[in-house]
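User: quick one, fold this
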Amino acid sequence: MAGFDEVSQLKPYKSMWRIKVKIIRIWKQYTAQGGETIEMVLVDFKGDKIHTSVKKDLVEQFDPVLMEGFTKILINFAVTYACGSYRTTKHAYKIAFVSTTKVRPCEELPMNLTGFTPAKFLDVLDGSLNTDYLVDVIGQIVEYRHVEIVSVNGKDTEKITVELRNENDVRLTIVLWGKFAMNVSDAIQLRADHAVEISTCSIHTILAACGLEHKSSEVHFVPPSVTCPHDDMRPGSSSSSSSLMKGCCSSCFDSFVEDVVKMILDTRQPHWLRLGLH
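Assistant:
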């Protein structure tokens, strides 16, 4: 990208770098040694990522201009060696803001530039991955324990344990702490509440379509009657299988129920769920 350095080119002993990056992760972290700092993961247009820290003395200066999901131009910062455990990227170095670092708004990088590279469950489970690095995982939550409050370094901290499964039904247990635990817990509860709402609305909508007793306030709409083409399957015929809807075989009625549920899901599902966001 003309006029900008690439993340892969960054190295120590120089501060006059100029990069255009998207903030794909941002959080505040507290340690006894460093106090409260801002930690970020940045990605450039090539998909290369680098960890970035803002030390406690500079948090107030830069906090208002750093937001997850936004693209920024960063000018004049330090580059130091990345080492230790729990590293967020494979980059050999990391960025450290200094008092003269400049943060400028700019045109956004593509939305699909997420920096998300999910690890395979089996690679996590068999211990073949380097434990110095954090990994991304994606899966369906199939089990979870309610949030616990545990003492960590003398401070009460939230903890939640969830079990994920992938497309091959391989299971992976993960533990989340602090606000991340609460975010996941809130999302699980929201999804559960939403499922109850969809189920209730679907039931009363189908009952109304069948001309049966229902709660009108829960009816999404009264769909038109199903035209069943299976004369030999309709109630009353020798090979019929009954359904709640008059003049409709069980097969067509099952299809009708699926269509109703899908239609209600499409209209009532929260926007963030349709986008697959957390």
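User: anything notable?
Assistant: Residues 195-274 form one domain.
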